[in-house]
Structures are given as C-alpha cells and as structure tokens.
Amino acid sequence: MPAAVEPTRPPTASNIVAGWAPLRPPFRALLPGLVQAEEHLNATGGQAWGLRWRALADAMGDPSGCTLALNAILADLGITLGLADTGGQWRVVLTIARDASTDEIRAAHAVALLVEADGWSRLKRCCHGRCPRTFLDATNAGTRTRCRLHTRPKRTQR
User: Fold this and answer.
1) Contact indicator for 59, 125 with CB cutoff of 8 Å
2) Is the distance from CB of 20 to CB of 94 less than 8 angstroms?
3) Is the CB of residue 94 less than 8 Å from the CB of residue 21?
4) What is the pLDDT of residues 139-152, one digit of tens each?
5) pTM confidence score
6) How far apart are the first and last CA of the chain?
7) CB atoms within 10 A of CB 150
8) pLDDT per residue over 51-84, tens digit each?
9) Gyration radius from the chain CA atoms
10) Closest Cα to residue 79, out of 64, 98, 63?
11) Which of 145, 139, 143 lies closest to 27, judged by CA?
C-alpha cells in the first residue's frame, strides 16, 4: 500500500482550489474549467504542460491510458486531497502542494469531476471534416459531436 502524501501546506481558505461534490448533468459548473482543459488538450507547442495534456488526448479510447495521463497531470501540478473545516462543516478539498497554474488546476479538476460523473466517454474527437481537435462533452445526454469551433452558436429568442 503506498504511503499517504501530506500536502506541504494545510488546507486553508487561501489555498483551497475547490471542494469535492458529486456531479450530474447538466455540468454548467464545470464549463469554465472544461473550456480551459480543451485549450490545453489542443495546444500546439512544446511546453511541458502542453505535452502532459497531449498525452491525455493521445490516450483517448483507452480508459487506463487516460487515467494514467490525468493522474500524471494532477501529480505534476502538486494537487492533493485534504480535509478542511469550512465554518464548522468538514469538506474534502483539493489543495496545492506547490505553486502551480490556477488555470491548469481548474482544468484538471473539471476533467476529473466530469470523468467521475460519467466516465471517459465524454472525451471526444471532433467529427467535422478533418478537424483534429479534442473536446470534452458536457451536454446533458453526452451527444455532442463537434468541438467549439464547429458548433453552431445558440440562437437568441426574438
């Protein structure tokens, strides 16, 4: 059994990234993080963070590979679980063990929660022509087939 990992800083209001709560569709609360995750999944360039996210996109279709890739992203970011007293109520929270990009943490957290709620089937490749983009389907039914670049905007009512 692996040894427990202790965060270098105790969970406080200033270093809590987000609380854990089981989710179900619609996943509106995850949208900001999922949009950032899609940007990371489709980034071009050789930055270390881009390569980590590319490994997740490349593992699509292999749940074990996707899990290893996302766990590597979370470990590289120094994210750990902790317990915090939030005004008399205990909550399981993600904490940051070192300085890391808040945007990337939010993105990785959103992907983890989406997968927890509905599995890796929400990680998809765009079906529009030869579009190589990877996206995360946060629709209620999980039926989205196109990335944000190839999705029609919703019409406003007159």
Assistant:
1) no
2) yes
3) no
4) 988 999 999 888 87
5) 0.74
6) 61
7) 14
8) 889 999 999 999 999 999 999 998 888 887 777 7
9) 17
10) 98
11) 139
